[in-house]
Design brief:
The chain has helices spanning 25-36, 43-56, 64-71, 97-107, 110-124, 136-140, 154-163, 174-190, 212-223, and strands spanning 11-18, 39-42, 76-79, 82-85, 88-89, 129-133, 144-151, 203-206. It is an alpha/beta fold. The protein has one domain (12-223): Rossmann fold (3-Layer(aba) Sandwich). A 5-stranded parallel beta sheet has the order 2-6-1-7-8, sandwiched between helices. Helix 1 (25-36) crosses helix 9 and helix 4 packs parallel to helix 8 (174-190). 36% of the residues are buried. Bound molecules: 2'-deoxycytidine-5'-monophosphate. 2'-deoxycytidine-5'-monophosphate (DC) binds next to helix 2, helix 4 and helix 8. The site of 2'-deoxycytidine-5'-monophosphate has 14 residues, from helix 2, helix 4 and helix 8.
Length: 224
């Protein structure tokens, strides 16, 4: 029989989890990947590691040409749950207020996104992977069979971030966290290249009143 339209083959060995700042994506994705015995790919960590390099190089966030050139001499890899920037473990250096302040702006540069996406897609195409970030189900791997989008109220997200030990002491008040969250969400949603959106065919989960385990179990109930 002749096929009349191009059919996209869904990959049931790729799970994507997208959502705004502080919604619990990383924690959920990490637990889920362990339960499924899949690789966990924290795509935001890659933008953070690259932002660290921009910061250390003393390049201003609006110096697009210099930032784009930097991608050509950058190598980002994951190993043993750690992220390596040019061979150095930077896992403990990328979750700071300084990085929070610049990462969304750097992630809005199309050439930077292209650089990241090519590496991310390569990892995803091997399958057995949980991709977590902002554009996993829309741009990195839209053909994933299981796509999830997590949401929560801004207050709930800010409280979670304040209680996150990785961020402890890095923000002085809840108001400061809310301001940072709103600013980043706004940049992530309004950029031209692969903005934060609910992916077509995804399942939206409001996590405001759910525990991490409840979210993980809900996701597993769709996958199994
Ligand atoms: O998930 P996170 O807070 O660690 O992500 C840091 C930033 O990276 C986020 O503000 C926007 C950007 N990002 C992105 O643009 N696309 C992704 N797939 C993941 C993160």
């Amino acid at each position: 029989m002749k096929k009349t339209r191009k059919e996209t083959k869904m990959n049931d060995k790729v799970v994507t989890i997208d959502g705004p700042v502080g919604v619990g994506k990383s924690t959920v994705a990490k637990i889920l990947s362990k339960k499924l015995n899949y690789t966990y790919l924290d795509t935001g960590a890659m933008y953070r590691a690259f932002s660290l390099k921009v910061l250390k190089a003393g390049i201003k966030v609006d110096d697009i040409d210099k930032i784009v050139s930097l991608t050509e001499v950058t190598n980002i890899e994951f190993s043993g749950g750690k992220i390596f920037l040019d061979g150095r473990d930077v896992s403990d250096l990328i979750r700071t207020k300084e990085i929070d302040d610049i990462v969304s702006q750097i992630a809005s540069i199309p050439e930077v996104r292209r650089f990241m996406r090519s590496a991310q897609r390569q990892i995803a195409s091997k399958g057995y992977v949980v991709l977590e970030g902002r554009d996993c189900g829309t741009a990195i791997y839209p053909e994933a069979k299981y796509k999830f989008f997590l949401t929560a109220s801004v207050e709930a997200r800010a409280k979670r971030r304040m209680n996150d030990e990785k961020y402890s002491g890095k923000y002085s008040s809840l108001e400061e966290v809310i301001e940072s969250i709103n600013k980043r969400d706004q940049i992530d949603m309004s950029r031209d290249d692969s903005p934060l959106r609910v992916p077509e065919g995804s399942i939206v989960i409001d996590t405001t009143n759910l525990s991490i385990d409840e979210v993980v179990n809900l996701i597993l109930s769709y996958i199994k």
